[in-house]
Queue: 2 jobs
Job 1
Amino acid sequence: MEKSAISVTKEPAGTREIRLTVGIPEERVQQEMRRVAREISEKVTIPGFRKGKVPYNVILQRYGETRLREQVADELTREVYQAAVEQEGLQPFGPATLENVQLQPMQFAFTLPLPPVVRLGDYRALRVEPPSVEVTEHEIREVLEDLRRKHAILEPIEGRGAQPGDILRIEVEGHTDDGQLFLKDEEADVPLDPEDTYPAPGFYAALEGMMPGEERTFRMKMPQGQPSEEAEFRVRLLGLYQQILPDLDDDLARTVGPFHSLAELKDDIRQHLLEIKENAAKETYTRDVMEKLVSQAEVEYPSSMMREQLEALTQRVGRRIQENERMTLEDYLKVTGQTLEDLHERLRPIADKEIRHALVLQELVRAEGLTVSDEEVEQRIQDITQDLEEDQAQELRNVLRAPQNRDSLVDRLLYEKAIGRLLAIARGEPLPEPVTGGSRETP
């Protein structure tokens, strides 16, 4: 459709959304109505006229002007939209929504999403002090004590009932109010700890004083979120033991691993704890830096992105409920007295956060000119498959090189590069000059 054949009015319709009202000249509408009438005359039989030769006025009288205009509007919708977008020089971020059609004069109202806008501001000035990490002697001692407990000798207790600190070998069953079995273990070694709240507060206190061979049945209130408000437990005490802990010496070190001395074991524990703490600190630091970058950025995005993200989050929630609760999302919402709208309202802040984080990282990649080479992708594929047998490795390499999987690898590598660059900025490390000023409409 020629640009001159339409009139376009443009107005904001929300954040990063625009409404186009497109008018079609009546002359063009009349031409299209005559074309539609000819098509109708070729398909129908009207007494007194040959097919394809029925006068326009007869078709108009028989079918009505409204029907002709409706068919014209249906057939012109896509063409009108494309012409309006081209005329206004727009780059829609996704499919448009046809909001309204007026038949006379003929007008179409479209709402279309525009690309998000991300302004990072002076992100190169962002600074966050990295956390310091250390391992204390107390932490090492806790690990050593745990090792002592794991390698303790269980010595039978005779002549008295179970007391706190004893090890109980029990057979246990738990049933809900409606008789459903939710807990069963034929032989479990458990410490008698009255403060332990699993499977229910007071469970272990109810076992105090039991003698080997004794069986007890009792009811208890269950924590919130369990299958029923109360449950009945049947416990049989198979054995009663006390722990004989090994000495904290070189013999313990040789028992728990390839260590020649307690000092070697302590060094290994210290290094292991340090790695755990460093990884946790890096995750926390990365999260803090990312939050600071997002908080100082200006991000605008169309509502269609929120709808898509909410749908993705809803699917994730549904899968988790299916795995954990063994019920569909629909059934879960009924049981918990919620609607899908309630769920979406709770998920909206999470969706907004995920969208903003993704858009800000995309803009950081662009602003810093980060790219991923074919060699880097191939190296990642080799790293993934290096520990496999050659036949398996080659099969997996072929899978990873498929376009969709390769794109996922590129995205992952870009994400890692973006996070690495962001952390380097936050630490104040010297870096090459950024490619752009860090502000644009993100396509």
Job 2
Amino acid sequence: MNVKKLLKKITPNVLLDAYHYSMPLIGSVIFGFPSRKLIVIGVTGTSGKSTTVEFITRILEAYGAKVASISSIRFKIGKDEWQNKLKMTTPGRFIIQKFLRQAVDAGCNYAVLEIASEGIKQHRHRFINFDMAVFLNLTPEHLDSHGGFENYRNEKLKLFEVTKNAHVVNTEDKNAQYFLDIPAKKVITFGNNIEHINLQLLGEFNQMNAAAAMAVATHYGVPKDVCVKVLEEVKGMPGRLEVISKDPIVVVDYAFTPDQLEASYTAVKSFSNNKSLVCVLGACGGGRDKWKRSVLGRLASQNCREIIITNEDPYDEDPWEIIEQVAEGVEGKKDEFHLILDRKEAIKKALKLATPTDAVIITGKGAEPLMCLADGKKIPWDDREIVREEIAKLEKKE
């Protein structure tokens, strides 16, 4: 166990909470409360946060605003952007406050932030003057960390509690009323009232992400036709149902919850005209949400012709134990799935197993640039680059 984890284990929760609360306070003081000079939009939910942040950013930019944004994909200030390599959706310590100061100094009007429950739990949303909070959806996730679904939901609600001006809520989600019950000057809803947008992105669920972005942008005065034009021009999102190859069909996706995984399998089947699936999956976040591992295995067995279960982000947990727990959920395919620790070898295996009637889908990491191992070690990683390298090798052999 590294020193950081040991200190966390032996420090009383009240002191840890005080520490986490003090960090954004100190940061906001050091950087001069920069969010007061920006229109800050916080986007939360289990799925679709990064895509919605990107949609909102592009729409506002198309309408002439200068925008800063943080998502699990990237940091962006105006035209400058860089990959998010922190393995954090909502960065901690002074990072957000420093980022917002840089955004102000660069002349930005808006900041669009992806807000995760783990970040809220550690008070990373504090001392940010949110003008708007956006709720997308809620399904079970981070249950071990939060101590159950209700606590997980309550963390999400805290973003709305500190946002007094405008709330945007997806009324299609069964948890919507909890968010609607929190008062705000303006409450905007989306759901049944959406119209279909001809997105180039895979996945019907992206219609809801687009509807959220449109609800946000129209509130700030962007005409509806501008929103639709921008949304329909978006060709893809890094690591979000990203098509790496069309011959053979290979898709890389970030999905790591049961709902996300099932939606991704459905999307790839639709895109490939119902080709059989060869899937590569694991269970990210060693030590977290062990309940979902067998569920992911079961979903793979229900949707895929061939299954390769592999390593993802084991952290300090034995990666073989994670793999075996995913495999426990596989139904009726005991002779048709493979356990391969080396993720690169797993991807190679999937590409070799795929026939012309198959589509390959690799889930769990998407565009993440790192793999997290024991004792805080991180190694460079990119599923997409490995796919490209291995396809090039196979083509060369032919």
